Amino acid sequence: MTTARTTHLRRSARTTPARVHARRKAAQEAAAAAAKAGRRPHHVGCQRGPQRVAMSVRLLLEDDVRLDAALEQSGLYLQDGVTEALRLWFKKLKIPVSPVPTVAAQD
């Protein structure tokens, strides 16, 4: 099996953080309470997060292994870990926060 394939398998088998387990447990408890009361559980949709831009990068294999270890140690998902790392890097370089341009609605 290739190294890239084993890295992909390791990343896909990563355990979920504790906050995800807590959210699932709360949803199961709410569903159980609703079932006990004889009504259907109320479904709350996902909250819309901030607007994001899709990016794609290629990492060296040793950097990918270090990234996996850092994410497992911190309990963060890839998106959260990259966002936090970028913010720390910008702070170190003293890059100011620029206002995000707004897109005007077209009629």
Characteristic terms for this protein:
single chain, 107 residues, 0% strand, 4 helices, mainly alpha
Describe the protein.
- It is built from four helices and no strands.
- By secondary structure, the protein is mostly helical.
- The chain is extended, with a radius of gyration of 20 Å.
Determine the number of helices (DSSP H or I, runs of at least 4 residues). 4
Structural class: mainly alpha
Q: What helical percentage do the residues reach? A: 55-70%
Query: Care to count the β-strands?
Result: 0
Determine the mean pLDDT.
Answer: 80
The biggest sheet, with number of strands, parallel, antiparallel or mixed sense and barrel status, is: none
Given the C-alpha coordinates, what overall shape results? Answer: extended
Low-confidence stretches: none
The rounded distance between the terminal residues' Cα atoms is 54 Å
Gyration radius (Cα, Å) is: 20 Å
Estimated share of beta-strand residues: under 5%
Task: Spell out the helices and strands N to C.
Answer: HHHH
Can you summarize this structure?
The chain is mainly alpha-helical. The chain contains four helices and no strands. The chain starts with a helix and ends in a 15-residue tail after the last helix.
SSE layout and pairing:
Blueprint: H1 3-12, H2 18-37, H3 61-74, H4 78-92
Helix pairs in contact: 1-3
